[in-house]
Fold:
Amino acid sequence: MSEPTGTVLDKSSPPPPAPEAGTKERRRFWSSRRVPAGLLALLVLVIAGAFLYDIAAVRADRPAMSWRRELSTQLAERPLDDTWVLVGAGVATALGLWLLLLALTPGLRRLLPMHRTHPDVRAGLHRDAAAMVLRDRAMEVAGVQSVRVRVRRRRAEVRAVSHFRELDHVRDDLDVVLADAVRGLGLARPPALSVRVRRPGRKG
Structure:
């Protein structure tokens, strides 16, 4: 008996078995973060250059620049609970925490580490490329009309629409095909598969 339109079958499966991988192989790639580093270096250069120029001018018996005199006056006279002092402290704290976060986290979350075939070479696969491979393989299954794939670090979510065949048969075929496709990606930490199949006309 055919299933009624709108029926949805959902199945989550553990990641397919993969060769043993060492800790170093599974580590994420670290981002060089050139833009934040460049902006910070430029900011430090401008501020340090302005102060050094003013200090050199004072040493040469010239008056200090008005902005530094004003800054010194404001820092000396404004109380610690002043609104602008609190705002400046909050901005400086947020900026410092952001820089610490960038320094302590690897970044490049969309790049998945792959198995090493050579000890001196590391390879990675972009999540969009992995999703494209899984989507193409899923479209080869009979009965699949459309597929949406979202690959995360530890899970690959597959949402398929089947316009004919029994949904459980389509889902079983997708499980087999996609498990083989995940193994073929060569990832150091293969993502677990979450496969969901539905009929056209119902969102899920």
Summary: The chain has six helices and six strands. The two ends are 23 Å apart (CA to CA).
